[in-house]
Amino acid sequence: MTREIIRTDQAPQAIGTYSQAVKSGTRVYISGQIPLVPETMEMVNGGSEQQIRRVFDNLLAVARAAGGGLEHVAKLNVYLTDLSDFPIVNQLMAEYFSEPYPARAAIGVAELPKGAKVEMDAVMEMG
């Protein structure tokens, strides 16, 4: 099975030894997105809501580059440095996703790259 590397300038460029996403068969694995603004590669201004919204926007950009959208996300992982931000994730997720919702995990972590409050990765099913 061949792998296709997915790239877009509409989402932050990789800041390490990884790809924005990899398509393998009918699945697309989207790497963790933090709230970086693609044009500047700087953290978005604002608090938790702005950071979470930026991450959803980044995920959407990579999903579109792969030929799909957030409706193709089968699994979403959410990493938060403060689990009290989880209600904001739910509120904004309802703006970006519609039923049937993907499977999801929310994990509290001590720290994220560049001081981000949130990171998300996803698996899309394109079949």
Task: List descriptors.
127 residues, alpha+beta, 60s Ribosomal Protein L30, Chain: A, 6-stranded mixed sheet, two-stranded antiparallel sheet
Textual characterization of the structure:
The radius of gyration is 14 Å and the shape is globular. It has one domain (3-125): 60s Ribosomal Protein L30, Chain: A (2-Layer Sandwich). The protein contains two helices and eight strands, in the order E-E-E-E-E-H-E-H-E-E. By secondary structure, it is of the alpha+beta class. The two termini are 15 Å apart. The strands form two sheets. Strands 1-2-3-8-6-7 form a six-stranded mixed beta sheet, covered by helices on one side. Strands 4-5 form a two-stranded antiparallel ribbon. Helix 1 runs parallel beside helix 2. Strand 4 and strand 5 form a beta hairpin.
Secondary structure blueprint with pairings:
Elements lengths: L2 E4 L14 E4 L2 E7 L2 E2 L4 E2 L4 H18 L7 E8 L5 H11 L6 E6 L9 E8 L2
Parallel strand pairs: 6-7
Antiparallel strand pairs: 1-2, 2-3, 3-8, 4-5, 6-8
Helix pairs in contact: 1-2
Number of domains: 1
Distance N to C terminus: 15 Å
Task: Find the count of extended strands (DSSP E, 2+ residues).
Answer: 8
* Percentage of residues in DSSP E strands: 25-35%
Instruction: Output the strand order for the largest sheet.
Output: 1-2-3-8-6-7
Low-confidence stretches: none
Q: Structural class per helix/strand content?
A: alpha+beta
**Global Rg:** 14 Å
Helical percentage = 10-25%
CATH superfamily: RutC-like
**Mean pLDDT, as a whole number?**
97
The CATH architecture assignment turns out to be: 2-Layer Sandwich
